[in-house]
């Protein structure tokens, strides 16, 4: 099992990217709060993992022309088409859908190959959050006061992409793992579902997929394209709330990228941390993490990308990482963010070529 993993830092100098909403505890109900996570007695602003995934999906649609899965509303639930053959976002981001008619209830579930954390502030709210006071005054009568929080911080997030799962769909009758139905097992009273699945299987065969009773595997060129574009989208990612008032570039300003033979992401915590209001990089922690999992680092390469204008004083620490790990026969490439992402995407493509 090969996983492409990474850690990103997003510079958010004046932002309100994911809001909690109106503070209902206040009598005037005019204060809009940012989302906050409590940890160790402090609160930290964060962007929900769902919001980050929404930006990611939208970027893949806008920049890489992904045909996104249509949304289907049934009673009080909303589903995607649950068709990973034709819709790459169903493949990469996963889905769950139930097909119901009378006493028949069949569910398909796809665990997302792409997993991600929230984007969490490195600075606590005491030193990062500001409350902006304003007035609505474009109407007749007295101005109406309102307040909203925004923050100045650096957001940290991490992700893991299961390369073996992209483009591979299970058809075994196993709860929570059944990605697709077999046409011959669909009950007669689900005629529409059977018709849809006949179309899905026909399209899969047309594309050259390998199909047996247990699984459907897409051609490696399609798998390679979907996985590499998922990585490349990080370079161009855009989105976030309150952009009209607090325009923020949400592309990463610092990335660490590598591939491991297992679902471990050793870059999630404490390599970058806050110390008395300053954001610091711990080269020894990164060196230790990589050496700890050296045996499953494959290939023996780590890509580090940093925007030239971001954390200029980290240069010496990055040189230390490169020199120390080079002694252990691990190739560390320190470059720009865009270059690191593009080169890492090529490593992802090379993995599929080796299959």
Task: Explain what the structure shows.
Helix content is 27%, strand content 34%. It has 355 residues and is of the alpha+beta class. It folds into two domains: 3-48 and 118-166 and 218-353, no CATH class; 65-112 and 168-217, no CATH class. The strands form five sheets. Strands 1, 2, 3, 4, 5, 10, 11, 12, 13, 17, 20 and 21 form a twelve-stranded mixed beta sheet that branches. A three-stranded antiparallel beta sheet has the order 14-16-15, with no helix packed on it. Strands 6-7 form a two-stranded antiparallel sheet. Helix 5 packs antiparallel against helix 8 and helix 6 (283-292) packs parallel to helix 7. The longest helix is centred in the middle third of the chain and has 17 residues, at 191-207. The termini are close together.
